[in-house]
Amino acid sequence: MIAAEHLTIGYGETVILEELDFTVPEGDVFAILGGSGSGKSTLLRNLIGLDEPLGGRVLLDGSPPTQHLGPPRFGVLFQSGALFGSMTLAENVALPLRKWSDLDAKAIDIVVRAKLRLVGLEGFENHLPAELSGGMKKRAGIARALALDPPLLFLDEPSAGLDPVSSVELDELLLTLNRSLAMTTVVVTHELASIFAVAHDCIMVDRDARGIIARGRPLELRDGSPDPRVRAFFNRRPA
Amino acid sequence: MLATTGPGYRVERVEREGGVEALRFAGELRFRECFASWGKVRELARPASPRMEIDLSAVEHLDGAATALLLDLRGELTAAGAQTEIVGAAGPVKALLELYGAHSPRPSRKTPPTRISILDQIGREALAMFGESRVLDFVGDLALAGAQAARRVRMVNWADLTRLMERAGADGVPIVLMLNFLVGLVTAFQAAIQLRQFGANIFVADLVGISVTRELAPLMTAIIVAGRSGAAFSAELGTMRVSEEIDALRTLGLDPYHFLVFPRVIALVLVLPLLTILADVAGIAGGLLVALAGLDLTVNSYLLETQKAVHPWDVSSGVLKTVFFALSIALVACQRGLATRGGAEGVGRATTSAVVTSLFAIVVVDAIFTVVFNALGR
Hints:
The structure holds two protein chains of two kinds.
Chain A: E1 2-11, E2 14-24, E3 29-33, H1 40-47, E4 55-60, E5 74-77, H2 89-100, H3 105-118, H4 134-145, E6 152-156, H5 164-181, E7 184-188, H6 192-198, E8 201-206, E9 211-216, H7 218-224, H8 228-234
Parallel strand pairs in A: 3-7, 3-8, 5-6, 6-7
Antiparallel strand pairs in A: 1-2, 1-4, 8-9
Helix pairs in contact in A: 2-3, 2-4, 3-4, 5-6, 7-8
Chain B: E1 2-6, E2 9-15, E3 20-29, H1 31-45, E4 51-62, H2 64-79, E5 83-87, H3 91-101, H4 118-130, H5 135-151, H6 161-168, H7 173-196, H8 203-242, H9 245-251, H10 256-294, H11 299-309, H12 312-338, H13 344-375
Parallel strand pairs in B: 3-4, 4-5
Antiparallel strand pairs in B: 1-2, 2-3
Helix pairs in contact in B: 1-2, 2-3, 6-10, 7-8, 7-10, 8-10, 8-11, 8-12, 8-13, 10-11, 10-12, 12-13
């Protein structure tokens, strides 16, 4: 389970969001919503330990997420995919396996092919990231994030920059992974179609309010939120 | 009635009922034509009466930028105390006014950057070297990662070492040989002009041999490596930083220092001394060419004289220095790369800074070695 307790985030002395309290139940797809510049990506960086909170704490299964020298406890898909440009897809996916498993080269190769097959990229093992489309890079990023079968998966704007078809394919992949692997997934997004398609539960953050302005199921928030900012977001109208 | 005209349009100031004064525009208001004569329109609007109208009923065409001028004029009149309205607009003219006037003006969220003096700029850059570039963070992280790697050598990404040595070393051999050959040649040529006057042609070999092995070859090779590999390391790490690859490494449980920094440092420390030995040979060969072509010396006599003049210490002291040059280049380049902020511009800035700082560091290290060797009587 993921828990944020009295979490205050920002950079330097600038507070972006403060006193955030929420939990993500095991097995859920949980969306962090908000407009551009609302601080949702900064919140994600705090959840995965890349940034230190200004106050409060984050607990992943009871312990802080601070990056340490050890096998990762979660997978992350960054907005750009963040594949290593000098490595092939197979090498990208194999990297955490080589580092953190005792598998020999042949076993790693089998696992890598399986992970790439899982995200629909079998046959692209020897391609460099630069040779792939945006959607393929994101799927390859997911394959790498899943290499060590983590129980938690974080995704930063997975649909950003994708055409509608690739975006829907990615949503379907996330749903399939969630159903098959019962993996707790946190998605940062502002794509409405994606939110309705994949999220069981969500919070919405707002920079002016410096905190969470809504929590609940996406459809319930769209149809029943008393907050005009939430209604404006879900109905694509200025507040 | 007062009036002014511009290309394609005319403005009149007319009095209307109830003490209202109107600026009546007619014709086509296009920014390119309006802008040059807009000063006259503003003059016509002064002094503002308590109630003003900007009448656009006779305007046939209005473009976006000219709309901005009209709205600015309204703001100026309002600020001068006149209650000002834009009236008479219809069709596309009205639509454009509504479009541009939809958002009420707001003050800028950030004040424009102020002009600063050259001295101020130099001071800020000096402070930024230690502040924004996070040198101290880098030193601390490096020390920590170094201690961990010393305990568990397998943590270092040795797999990349060969590739990095090939790129920094083998790929740089032609340019290192060519430049050092030319440096040896130029040095010999300059020396020959002077030494020939005293019949001391043979001492060109001494001068070239000692200056190349002790100073010129190590320095020139380090400068070439700073320009090639230092810039490449910084740009590569900077790009990885801005494309979130460094963050991705961390989330995979891989330390960027073990994975990226140490292999690069080790590669340069191994490669630069080897390149310097090749550079020594190339520099001496450059001197030999001048000796053969211009000083009537033979190959044997030149090489024998070089052998007599150049002691093992001359070569080894030069090579020893390059280990520290390599450390400076690799650490500066990696630090600048990892501290990159922003997008493409940030990568460019980091790369420039890496090369300039590396060159500075090389000269400082060289000066320290010169003083120390001198103090030791070598």
